[in-house]
Amino acid sequence: MACSRGKASPNSFTKSKLFANSGGFCQRPDCNENLFKTFTNTEIHIAEIAHIISANNGSRSNKDYTAEEKGNYENLILLCSKLSYNN
Ligand SMILES: [Zn+2]
Question: Distance from the CA of 30 to the center of ligand 1, in angstroms?
C-alpha cells in the first residue's frame, strides 16, 4: 500500500477505515478483486490507496482542495494493484 504524497497521505486511522469498509475487496465497481492473495504460503494484500481528486497536479486535480483534504477518507478509494497496470 504505497502512498508517498506528503500531506495528502492518509493517516493510519484512515487507512484502517478504508480496509475495514472495503470488506477486503477492490472498490472499483466492475472489479471486486479480492485484495488478499496467498503466494508461496505467504498471505499479502495487493491493495493500493488512490486519490479521487489527484494528490498531484494532473487531469484529476482540483486547486480548491488542500493537501490535507486530498488525504481525507472521503477522497480516497482502495483499489487492487492490477488497475495500476491496466490504466
Ligand atoms: Zn480492482
Answer: 8
Check residue 75 and report its DSSP letter. G
Q: How far does the centroid of ligand 1 lie from the alpha carbon of residue 18, in Å? A: 14
pLDDT tens, residue by residue, 43-58 = 999 999 999 999 887 8
Q: How many Å lie between the centroid of ligand 1 and the Cα of residue 11?
A: 22
Q: Separation of 7 CA from ligand 1 center, angstroms?
A: 25
Per-residue pLDDT band at 60 (split at 50, 70, 90):
confident
Distance, in Å, from the CA atom of 84 to the CA atom of 64, rounded to the nearest integer, reads 26
Domain residue extents for the chain? 6-86
Contact 8, 71 (CB under 8 A): yes
Give this prediction's pTM. 0.81
